[in-house]
Amino acid sequence: MYDPRVTTPDGMTAEQAINRIEAAGHPRPQDRRLHARGAVYEAKFVPSGRIAHLTSAAHLTTETSAVVRFSNGSPQYDADDRARGIRGMAVKFLDGEGNGVHDLVAANFRVFPSSTPEGFVELVEALSATGEAGLKEKLAGGGKLAGFLFQHKESHAGIKAFVSRRAPASFATTRYDGLHAFHFTGAEGTRTAFRYRLVPQLGEADLDADTTKLERGFLLPDLDRRLEGGPVSFTLVVQLGEPGDPTHDPSIAWPEHRPLLPAGEIRIERLSPESADWERQVFDPTRITHGVELSDDTVLAFRPLAYSVSAERRLS
Ligand code: HEM
């Protein structure tokens, strides 16, 4: 029987998913199987007070320390930051002892390209099948990616929106979405569906067409340079669902006119002196605490299984 904590609807285990991702992407043994190159920064969360009535989560309603990992989504450690692709921002809220209490794991797409983990693994395979070619060329060239799109109608909107943009100009000018639904639980027993996004206070900016002056791995040095001039901030924005809005499928966006509330500011201050140690840890979107609950999204339920297998392999 299908058990979302062990297998996907089609019976794929996390081990099998990671085997397929490894076969497609050839990561180095010591790296994350996706999002291989990244670095971890020290940050502060400064709450706005606007969600205090929705959640009893203390870390979201008082000033809290955090660490933030920015990454290129590629399995290749030497991935080209000038190419269109996935960029990640992962936040770990810390308790007084420096332990993680709640992780946000978000990426620069607005809707997940698949409603199942299998679909996502197939997409990783299709994207790697055409090697270094750009996404637009991969789509135009037919082959595995075109075959994937033929099978996965739910992916069209997400992939089309993604392909229409150039690569991000900076980690600091990219919007990252969490995509899955969660629930806030409040002191009075209230329960409110929400999704989160991390919106750059500098505004969004993509690269110009001419990238010849940029280094292949320019994104982390760019962020370090910006931080020499002061903090780089993001607004944690929550979108509130209404009764009937689907919570089980990250490939279905909620209407954009659903209320958007600024929960607070994530102020990134400096590269963590312990970045290399934090790199070893897992940022897990199901790590939550009192005041936040998981939804019925089976892609979300599968992620910690896959991330644990990736972590076991890269740390062994
Ligand atoms: C079934 C679906 C998914 C699979 C199988 C998958 C797989 C993975 C794997 C294997 C890693 C490396 C984990 C590690 O070694 O610590 C990873 C990291 C990551 N994934 Fe996913 N992923 C999925 C869905 C998503 C979604 C929906 C998002 C965005 C909302 C996302 C964003 C990220 C980010 C930002 C990281 C880097 C986290 C970090 O900095 O440690 N992934 N993913």
UniProtKB/TrEMBL annotation:
Domain of life assignment: Bacteria
Binding of heme, residues: 307
Lineage: Bacteria, Bacillati, Actinomycetota, Actinomycetes, Pseudonocardiales
A Pfam family the protein falls into: Catalase
Main enzyme class: oxidoreductase
PROSITE patterns named in the record: CATALASE_3 (PS51402)
Keyword Iron tagged: yes
Needed co-factor(s): heme
GO cellular component, one term: cytoplasm
Catalase core domain span: 7-316
Job description of the protein: Has an organic peroxide-dependent peroxidase activity.
Organism: Amycolatopsis saalfeldensis
GO biological process: hydrogen peroxide catabolic process; response to hydrogen peroxide
Protein name per its UniProtKB record: Catalase-related peroxidase
Catalytic center residues: 35
Enzyme Commission code: 1.11.1.-
Family stated for the protein in its record: Belongs to the catalase family.
Keywords: Heme, Iron, Metal-binding, Oxidoreductase, Peroxidase
